[in-house]
Design a protein that fits this description.
Protein name: Hexosyltransferase
Main location: membrane
Shape: globular
Enzyme class: transferase
Number of helices: 14
Number of strands: 11
Structural class: alpha/beta
Order of helices and strands: HHHEHEHEHEEHEEHHEEHHHEEHH
Radius of gyration: 25 Å
Helix content: 25-40%
Strand order of the largest sheet: 3-2-1-4-9-6-10
Number of domains: 1
Region (Disordered): 1-27
CATH architecture: Alpha-Beta Complex
Strand content: 5-15%
Membrane topology: Single-pass type II membrane protein
């Protein structure tokens, strides 16, 4: 098979090698021939670049079509329709396999899957390729891909204890209210390393009351570990929790009232703590601590079943962990260990077998999708 490099070589030889049939051409034809050659060269380079970009993404099997039950409201295209459930996730090459599994799990357990709209946040230069992957995997999915400009956070990110936490897309959730359409007033944010094993409509329907966001809270966790000694030794910082009883919550599962977020200018409040962090180094855990500083103690508590987190182990070793006691609606591999990587390395943890059925990766070694 002729490669892009072979084609370039042939084109170069044709352009520079003497050819009796061309030596008799009038001199005026030479610029036209040169322009045609350059155009052909540009097309070949563009085709090769597109092929290389597409090759970076794995291939996935097509998911089955999921249809609404007879009791579901009719799905409509209007963004602000009250029967529509809006879910936001990030998309990138590193976590694409996890995102695809997460979407598949949501649809499989939803009572009204056609009433779900996904809002994917992605870097500008990858949106076209990512749209192709999502469309081919979920032909019936209602989704949008929103451009996230990483330059917005380049100067605000501080080095954390794990490199993955420093990626600009990890901070996209801070700008969610600005990225999705203004008539989307409520949204669920999901990380890309989780699966849902219950009807997401139950999570969607929680009453946020006066709060901006809802999430499972873990008040037994040692809250002091999420900030440095520099933070706890300065009343100017610790007074930010005055009047609140702060509890840890994981930002990988949140139900957000976007209208209250916009009205309260919460993006600016989170950014302010990121600027303080650049100067004083008050935490070590990426985008999580600013959320704790702004919202902890002012969160609508959600049942713990909606975030069985920490299945990826800690942020350093990623060791295997067990489930927390109690019922399960969502499994979350937060931490260093990701199930698809452990499965590929043939060193899976026991709970990774619960993620595997939602893995739509098309394995090249198999003869069929079965």
């Amino acid at each position: 098979m002729t490669t892009a490099i072979d084609s370039l070589t042939i084109l170069h030889q044709r352009h520079h090698s003497p050819n009796p049939s061309t030596t008799m051409m009038p001199h005026s034809a030479s610029p036209l021939r040169r322009q045609c050659s350059l155009l052909a060269l540009a097309l070949i380079l563009l085709s090769a670049a597109s092929a290389m970009a597409a090759a970076e993404f794995p291939a996935f099997r097509e998911a089955p079509a999921f249809r609404n039950g007879i009791d579901c409201p009719k799905a409509v295209t209007a963004t602000a329709d009250p029967s529509t459930i809006h879910i936001a996730m990030t998309l990138d090459a590193s976590y694409l396999r996890g995102s695809i599994a997460g979407v598949f799990s949501v649809l499989q357990h939803a009572s009204c899957p056609e009433n779900i709209v996904f809002h994917f946040l992605a870097a500008a230069h990858r949106r076209h390729d990512l749209r192709r992957v999502v469309s081919s995997t979920f032909p019936y999915l209602r989704f949008h891909i929103h451009r996230f400009d990483s330059q917005i956070v380049r100067g605000k990110i501080s080095h954390s204890i794990r490199r993955a936490l420093d990626q600009p897309l990890n901070y996209a959730r801070i700008y969610l209210a600005d990225l999705v359409p203004a008539d989307v007033r409520r949204i669920i944010y999901f990380d890309s390393d989780l699966i849902v094993v219950d009807d997401v409509a139950k999570l969607w329907s929680i009453n946020l009351g006066p709060h901006v966001l809802g999430a499972p809270e873990y008040c037994h966790a040692n809250f002091s570990t999420y900030f440095t000694d520099r933070f706890w030794s300065d009343p100017a910082f610790t007074d930010s929790f005055k009047g609140r009883r702060p509890c840890y919550f994981n930002t990988g599962v949140m139900v957000i009232d976007l209208q209250k977020w916009r009205d309260g200018k919460y993006t600016e409040k989170l950014e302010e703590w990121m600027r303080i962090q650049k100067v004083h180094r008050i935490y070590d855990l990426g985008s999580l601590p600013p959320f704790l500083l702004v919202f902890a103690g002012d969160v609508e508590g959600v049942e713990l079943r909606w975030n069985q987190h920490g299945l990826g182990g800690d942020n350093l070793q990623g060791l295997c962990r067990d489930l927390h006691p109690g019922p399960v609606s969502l499994l979350h591999w937060s931490g260093k260990g990701k199930p698809w990587r452990r499965i590929d390395s043939r060193r899976p943890c026991p709970l990774d077998s619960l993620w595997a059925p939602y893995d739509l990766l098309r394995h090249s070694s198999l003869f069929s999708d079965n």
